């Protein structure tokens, strides 16, 4: 370990593994260290099933769950947007060669006590039970406007410049009611609250386009999920880093980050010090440089049936917009199953999560749990949400934020790309990646 590196990455959470791969690809000499024996950090996948029960202090699972080693349970499950940042990163870096994905079968939104499929094109909009007949026409016109917008062509803006109009002004122009605004902002554009309404519309237009472009790739929903669970992702990026010269050390305690004149100069483990110019890490390695800004509750549910009213989908996402249940933040429900090699035959894993708003978090997720039908076993955790207290430019310590309550990876990617930009002073150049890492073309 007594060597000099351009960057040392601490922790093997997904964000840190992606950063390690990106830094290695960009020509940096990277050392990647984790105090744990396994990849994934707080976003790990747990196998066998017995370990999950032990982790949450539950009695050992009985025979009905099948073989324990057939289970791979994500602690923080999230779906990938088929045309989103993480998939682009996976394709551009060649990490796709280590992974296999399945399309998620359905995307639903909650309204008035029941769930409906999220309408994503003009045809679905006209068939949707989320809106009355006249509202459907207005929504269809709105979708056509969004699809037609070209950022560099004012002729496509129809007197509604998305760079200056707020999203609320565009909704009002098309006469969309509050319910339609609700599912558009939360189930299509995937915003977590309503602050976006008063911001310029261009970001929301981009997000809705991303949703429909992702949907166009595979058809059933815009989401993908990796076979064998999300634990495969950090390991894929770890392999990428190794191909580009990165060094990995698991089960290595970190005693402290060595500073001189307010800047990082190395990392100490026991008697060894690895010198470096930069450190990238998760909040757990630098408690004095992060602040707690909230909490997230997650409930892992093991079931032997799909979610009711989803046409027996073997995988699905449901978003409960905050206004539907009188909250400030959305509730997210995700479902994966034995078809993804993460559970024994006939079994399903659901997750309900949200940002904590009261001192009784379990009551807050009840609307999500009520949609699931009978639950055989559930595991509840409440995690603190941390953010770095500064941008890292002075100390050269760049810290990721904790994982939020969302069931998709878009916010995770934005954080990673932002950290990379701060640490290197430039946006990640996808063209630097050699795509001939293996024989097959992806």
From TrEMBL:
Cellular location(s): Cytoplasm
GO cellular component term of the entry, any: cytoplasm
Superkingdom field: Eukaryota
Gene3D superfamilies: FAD/NAD(P)-binding domain, Guanine Nucleotide Dissociation Inhibitor, domain 1, Guanine Nucleotide Dissociation Inhibitor, domain 2
Keywords, in A-Z order: Cytoplasm, GTPase activation
Pfam families on file: GDI
The keyword Cytoplasm appears for this protein: yes
Database matches in InterPro entries: FAD/NAD-bd_sf (IPR036188), GDP_dissociation_inhibitor (IPR018203), RabGDI (IPR000806)
Function: Regulates the GDP/GTP exchange reaction of most RAB proteins by inhibiting the dissociation of GDP from them, and the subsequent binding of GTP.
Record family assignment: Belongs to the Rab GDI family.
Name the record gives this protein: Rab GDP dissociation inhibitor
Species lineage: Eukaryota, Metazoa, Ecdysozoa, Arthropoda, Hexapoda
